[in-house]
Automatic annotation (TrEMBL):
The lineage of its organism: Eukaryota, Viridiplantae, Streptophyta, Embryophyta, Tracheophyta. GO terms for biological process: phospholipase C-activating G protein-coupled receptor signaling pathway. The keyword Protease does not apply. This is Diacylglycerol kinase accessory domain-containing protein. It comes from Aegilops tauschii subsp. strangulata. InterPro entries: DGK, Diacylglycerol_kin_accessory, NAD/diacylglycerol_kinase_sf. Keywords: ATP-binding, Kinase, Nucleotide-binding, Transferase. The keyword Zinc-finger does not apply. One of its GO terms (cellular component) is membrane. Residues 5-106 form the Diacylglycerol kinase accessory domain.
């Protein structure tokens, strides 16, 4: 997170919602970016999503109708990036608030026209007691 080597990745102007996952599926097992071909992964510099790969999958949704079609797997979401951590810079303007949700918990993030708001997200691996069989 304290890297000076952040890569700037512009979000397409059509994207209205950004989702960062530490799993290879979303919303009850959906694969929001579809079945990616090896050629696509290689071209983009991505690897196949795995729950233990240490990467966050970042994708975008355009509008409510787009999210609905992604959920029924008729189209795919916009696959934006894979990263160990992300930093979102949200600039205020005509909107006073950004509606956010983290791990199912929603909040309203106030925005300013005078400065940017930054949201840092990183995947923190926690050992699972179920998988490891550890005793409490």
């Amino acid at each position: 997170m304290d890297s000076s080597e952040w890569e700037h990745i512009p979000v397409p102007s059509s994207v209205r919602a950004i989702v960062a996952l530490n799993l290879h599926n979303y919303a009850s097992g959906r694969n929001p970016w579809g079945n990616l071909k090896p050629e696509y992964l290689e071209k983009k510099g991505f690897v196949e999503a795995q729950s233990d790969d240490g990467l966050l999958e970042i994708f975008g949704l355009k509008q409510g109708w787009h999210a609905s079609l992604v959920m029924v797997e008729l189209i795919s979401a916009k696959h934006i990036a894979q990263a160990a951590a992300i930093r979102l810079e949200i600039k205020g303007g005509q909107w006073r608030d950004a509606y956010m949700q983290m791990d199912g918990e929603p909040w309203k993030q106030p925005l300013s026209t005078e400065y940017s708001t930054f949201v840092d997200i990183k995947r923190v691996p926690y050992p699972s007691m179920i998988i490891s069989g550890a005793d409490r």
